[in-house]
Amino acid sequence: MSILIKTAEEITKMRVAGKLAADVLEMIAPHVIIGVTTNELNHICHDYIVNIQHTIPAPLNYKGFPKSICTSVNQQVCHGIPNDKKLKNGDIINIDITIIKDGYHGDTSKMFCLGTVTPFAKRLVNVTREALFLGIEQIKPGNHYGDIGYVIQKHAHKHRYSVVQEFCGHGVGKDFHEPPHVMHYGKAHTGDEFKPGMIFTIEPMINMGKRYTKVLGDKWTAITKDRSLSAQWEHTMLVTETGYEILTLRAEEL
Ligand code: MF3
Ligand code: CO
Ligand code: CO
After folding, report:
1. Is any atom of ligand 1 closer than 6 Å to the C-beta of 202?
2. 2: in domain
3. Count of CB atoms within 10 A of residue 63's CB?
4. Please, which of 73, 178, 216, 254 could form a disulfide with 171 given CB 3.0 to 4.6 Å?
């Protein structure tokens, strides 16, 4: 299947879905504190998504995923399952929100730092966010998907970090995961060209140690093989005539 070009009506719906996903991250921020469990965060998000937004939490029952959000702590790379363990001082956590509104998906994630994190962890979190935005800046008609991976990898390697290869960004719309695979590594000027109306995520996962990951016995939680810290940030992106629009932008990013 080739990369879908969204119609004006679909883009309008994706803007709404993206904004709602971003709203969940803004809503949950004050709750991400030392001593809270990821199950409690899951519960607060689920309640807000279902009862306040009247949207659908896309992860719940997606290919058997048991919760409404993904929470990936420290050496967890992605797809962490909320549980009853309390967050503690110095933890770094990614919260990944995907909602469905009017049949369309909005997908976004950000990192939170609990209390006083080490300067090393803070730097990993910041460099990963910088990598996401360097990737975003590549988006305009005529450039290629490979340009995203190229700049993300370059930025990670400059800081002696590694880029996870087993998980990537993805087209998003009516389906949670649509073509293409959006790689966070690779060569400039390769892959498909960006065309106005394409919508996809960029969601780099960057490790302090080696790039290798493994999936735990729960079939979901991906961790770094060497147990080094990992960070991830994600936005849903629209290709416009002149560049891009971030559909999941939060107020703090303006
Ligand atoms: N939100 C994740 C992504 O960015 C996917 C989570 S799949 C789940 O693609 F099943 F774990 F929720
Ligand atoms: Co995604
Ligand atoms: Co996501």
Report:
1. no
2. no
3. 9
4. 178
Does residue 171 lie in a domain region? yes
Could you list the residue range(s) of the whole structural domain that residue 130 is in? 8-246
- Ligand 2 centroid – CA 200 distance (Å): 8
Q: For ligand 1, is residue 105 a contact (CB within 6 Å)?
A: no
Residue 50 belongs to some domain of the structure: yes
- Ligand 1 touching residue 96 (CB < 6 A): yes
Give the Cα separation of 194 and 16 in Å (integer).
22
Assess whether the C-beta atom of 120 lies below 6 angstroms from ligand 1.
Answer: no
Token pair of 243, please?
A: 């560049």
Quick check: is 3 in a domain?
Answer: no
The pTM is what? 0.99
CATH code at 134? Answer: 3.90.230.10
Two tokens at 48? 């807000």
Ligand 1 pocket: which of 24, 56, 77, 78 to mutate (most atoms <8 Å of CB)? 78
- Of the listed ligands, the closest to the CA of 79 is 1
**Which residue's CA is the nearest one to ligand 1's atom 2?**
96
What is the number of structural domains in the chain?
1
- Residue 252's CB is within 10 A of a number of other CB atoms, namely 10
Tens of pLDDT, residue by residue, the chain (254 residues): 799 999 999 999 999 999 999 999 999 999 999 999 999 999 999 999 999 999 999 999 999 999 999 999 999 999 999 999 999 999 999 999 999 999 999 999 999 999 999 999 999 999 999 999 999 999 999 999 999 999 999 999 999 999 999 999 999 999 999 999 999 999 999 999 999 999 999 999 999 999 999 999 999 999 999 999 999 999 999 999 999 999 999 999 99
